[in-house]
Design a protein that fits this description.
By secondary structure, the protein is mainly alpha-helical. The protein has 4 helices and no strands. Helix 1 runs antiparallel to helix 3 and helix 3 packs antiparallel against helix 4. The longest helix is centred in the middle third of the chain and has 24 residues.
Length: about 100
């Protein structure tokens, strides 16, 4: 179920639409929004969301096979993914 939600969100973001899902960007003033390339920002967030969706799918499909400590590995991957998204969103996605 969680995978489906993340997958739909990532598809919307990867298509370059769905900027209203990006927290901070959707409430920013028009002057602030002009500083960012909206398509790049959406795609960056979509790629990050895809990584989390694939991880959720993997954990759901192989929950009986994966060792218990894989939860900690998954949390580490998610934390690194979020940090990379924040850094890329503030550097690569600026005009």
């Amino acid at each position: 179920m969680v995978f489906a939600i993340f997958a739909v969100l990532s598809i919307i973001l990867l298509s370059g639409h769905g900027s209203w899902f990006i927290s901070g960007y959707n409430t920013a003033s028009n002057e602030e929004k002009e500083k960012y390339d909206e398509k790049k920002l959406c795609r960056t967030m979509g790629i990050g969301m895809s990584i989390i969706a694939i991880l959720a799918l993997t954990m759901g499909l192989f929950e009986n096979i994966l060792p218990a400590f894989f939860v900690y590995i998954a949390l580490g991957i998610i934390l690194v993914d979020v940090v990379v998204i924040i850094i890329l969103g503030n550097t690569l996605c600026r005009k």
